[in-house]
Design a protein that fits this description.
It is built from 6 helices and 4 strands. Helix 2 packs across helix 3 and helix 2 runs parallel beside helix 5. The protein is α+β, with helices and mostly antiparallel strands.
Length: 164
């Protein structure tokens, strides 16, 4: 699916870093959008355009170093910087890019600033099952939590089962 990037211009730093902007929606881009809607944000202040993805410094470091880095390298030809946040048990992957920020906000529909009331699955994603699955994979990888616990069985339930 084609994306409208006609009004998008690369800043000089974006050109120097050889950032690429996709012309079509891909599963990798949909996964990035899911990740951003889960644990990410677009942050704009004065002339700074920042993209952050947060995570737990113990649980999520491998995911940030492998999956997030490779997705951004594949889609935008840039690797995020991973930073430990002082006095917290958290990390963030960070990208400073006006072109990527503007593309994600205008062409794809990722909200910036306080997104609590404005998170939506972009309509472009809802038109293709592969895109939906990729978006949900990114969202689940960052926002869902699954934990398995060993369940102790009581002696009564064992005796009841032995009768069958």
């Amino acid at each position: 699916m084609k994306l409208n990037t006609s009004k998008l211009t690369l800043s000089n730093p974006d050109k120097t870093r050889k950032i690429t902007i996709p012309k079509e929606l891909t599963t990798e881009l949909c996964e990035i959008i899911g990740i951003l809607n889960g644990d990410g944000c677009l942050y704009k202040r004065k002339n700074r355009y920042e993209i952050y993805i947060y995570g737990d410094s113990n649980e999520d470091i491998y995911y940030h170093k492998t999956k997030i880095k490779s997705l951004f390298k594949s889609v935008f030809n840039i690797e995020p910087r991973i930073q430990k946040i002082k006095n917290h048990n958290s990390i963030r992957s960070r990208i400073d890019s006006k072109a990527i920020f503007t593309f994600l906000n205008n062409s794809v529909g990722v909200a910036y600033g306080d997104k609590k009331e404005r998170i939506r699955i972009p309509k472009k994603i809802l038109k293709n099952k592969k895109f939906i699955y990729a978006y949900l994979r990114g969202l689940a990888d960052t926002d869902f939590y699954l934990k398995f616990k060993k369940k102790k069985r009581c002696k009564e339930s064992k005796s009841l089962l032995s009768n069958y």
